[in-house]
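Comment thread on ticket #2218

A.B. wrote:
> Attaching the input chain for the structure job we discussed in standup.
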Amino acid sequence: MVRPSASRTAPGVAVGIDLAAPHGAVAVAVGGNAETLEARDGEPGPATASLRDPAGRFDPAATAAALLALRGRAERALGRPVTHAAIVVSEPLDASVRNALRRSGVGERAGDDARAPSR
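C.D. wrote:
> Ran it. Output below, let me know if you need it in another format.
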């Protein structure tokens, strides 16, 4: 079990965030293996179907909210700030979503290397 840090100035951690599944998930590498970070109440992550509009484009505000919720889940579970994230999506993020993520503080380089996962 990871003990919470006493300070928000503790060294940050990088996580992986999955928005390609039906519910968003966040994980961290521990000893080279991914550990999914579950919510304290056992609830699944945010539903990802609602992140897209009827045309299939990501809604910038909904996507930023989901990412911030998953970042918060990771920070509570790990007791330290999340400073970096690799985000998995089923299709590349468009420019409006990348800009919304930058403005929301999710990441200053959000989407710089946005690619759909290989199938």
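A.B. wrote:
> Thanks. Noting for the ticket: Residues 1-6, 114-119 have pLDDT under 50 and may be disordered.
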